[in-house]
Amino acid sequence: MIDKLKEIFARYSDAETEEITADTVILRDLGLNSYSIIEIINDIEDELNIEIPDSILPDIKTVGDIVNYLDKAGAC
Question: What single string gives the DSSP state of each residue in 35-74?
């Protein structure tokens, strides 16, 4: 699961997939903005066929936060 997410995040940043970990802070470490995060969430929803509610977006700070949400939602 995390490998797929790393690929998605790498598409939107200058980071290589090898540099992205569960502890990577999306805004700070990847240099992304809130608009990019929305696009990434849309890609994750499309590729994993899951809906991620907008209400959790403020809680997503790291790649691991998304992994944890997807795990709890049964998408992993």
Answer: HHHHHHHHHHHHHHT----GGGGGG--BHHHHHHHHHHTT
Q: What is the per-residue pLDDT for 73?
A: 86
Number of domains the chain is built from: 1
d(CA 28, CA 74): 28
Q: What is the CATH classification number for the domain harbouring 49?
A: 1.10.1200.10
The boundaries of the domain holding residue 17 are: 2-72
Amino acid letter, 40: I
Q: Is the dihedral of CA 65, 67, 70, 74 positive or negative?
A: negative
- The pLDDT averaged over each successive group of 10 residues in the chain (76 residues) is 93 95 96 91 94 92 94 80
Residue in the structure block whose two tokens are 């990577």? 24
Specify which residues 62 forms β-bridges with. Answer: 25
